[in-house]
Amino acid sequence: EAGVTQSPTHLIKTRGQQxxxxxxxxxxxxxxxxxxxALGLGLQFLLWYDEGEERNRxxxxxxxxxRQFPNYSSELNVNALELEDSALYLCASSKGSGxxxxxxxxGPGTRLTVL
Amino acid sequence: SQKIEQxxxxxxxxxxxxxxxxxxxxxxxxxYLQWYRQDPGRGPxxxxxxxxxEKEKRKERLKVTFDTTLKQSLFHITASQPADSATxxxxxxxxxxxxxxxxxGTRLSIRP
Lengths: 115, 112
Known about the structure:
By secondary structure, chain A is an all-beta fold. Helices cover about 0% and strands about 50% of the residues of chain A. In chain A, strands 2, 4, 5, 6, 9, 10 and 11 form a seven-stranded mixed sheet that branches. A four-stranded antiparallel sheet of chain A has the order 1-3-8-7, with no helix packed on it. In chain A, a hairpin with a 3-residue loop joins strand 4 (about 30-40) and strand 5 (about 40-50). Chain B is mostly beta strands. Chain B has strands at about 5, 10-15, 20-25, 30-40, 45-50, 55-60, 60-65, 70-75, 85-95, 100, 105-110.
């Protein structure tokens, strides 16, 4: 069974640009979660999508947005990039029972660097 | 706001000993507490989940305790091995089960 996949592996952008990160969940999983892991700050919850709907979002500004497609893959968009957006962005998926207690399976992450 | 503290940034243990990692939280108790393992350059991997009405959970060499009075969870690895070296994260989920908060992790090193 294929795990969660993310693309690209690395992304380099300059301040003010937009970044788009992609995630494909495990087959059969309907929930997708996005996290930011900056150095020394641990995992910060960004967004949760289930069945195409945004279920919850963390304490991030509106320039962090995303969507979930009918095939349950997901996209995270970060507009007006700032230097502090440099981090590892992790995507996770779960079977989607409507609860964040479901076991989450993480992808390898996208390393975003903002210059 | 809710805060999570994991005992230390790094812990060094001799192979064969029991490693004990601590996760402390403030304010109200979560309904669920999870532990994850993260290796360098990889995403976290789920290890164990314990509910607020459970005192202890075990899985092979792993044991997790949950003390809602002390607002603390302990994560034990018995008979530790160098392959157990990784960063361990605790995560809290509240009764609404719509949000999850991760600790910053403890980097565990097991020396032969």
